[in-house]
Amino acid sequence: MKVWTEKSGDARTVPYPDSLRQQLANWMDVGRGMVYGADESPYLFPTRQGERISGETVRYVVTQAAEESGLQEVYGTDVEGRERALVTPHTLRHSFAVQCAKNGMRAPFLRDLCGHHDINVTEIYLNLANDDAVDAGRKYGPQA
């Protein structure tokens, strides 16, 4: 599936589990047309107000879902006094990348998957995965 990236202004291919294939096909073929009258839209989530769902709506949906599931925490405020939530769309992206690194995905593949232009940005995820491995080694490894 192609996903548009506002930051870089291009699209990249994003994988999804085979278990979602049928649900996505049903949504594309029937659901979104019935709900939004958007049979021919190139976007997965069109809206009545615009061509596609906004970043702000995605942030709202993710933070609301985290709150309703009891996972959300507020960890501070920004310079404008708005509360900062722990679980955000970027948290999900970051968690996905770290898990890919933990599972052994090599840096060039992870870079392409995340849409990073600089491999050094991708290395951050690999370092976090390595730190987890060291912590696990300390916890589960031989004790003196």
UniProtKB/TrEMBL annotation:
Keywords: DNA integration, DNA recombination, DNA-binding. Gene3D superfamilies: Intergrase catalytic core (1.10.443.10). The keyword DNA-binding applies. One of its GO terms (biological process) is DNA integration. Pfam families: Phage_integrase (PF00589). Residues 1-138 form the Tyr recombinase domain. InterPro entries: DNA_brk_join_enz (IPR011010), Integrase-like_cat_sf (IPR013762), Integrase_catalytic (IPR002104), Tyrosine_recombinase_XerCD (IPR050090). One of its GO terms (molecular function) is DNA binding. Signal peptide: none annotated. This is Tyrosine-type recombinase/integrase. It comes from Halosimplex aquaticum.
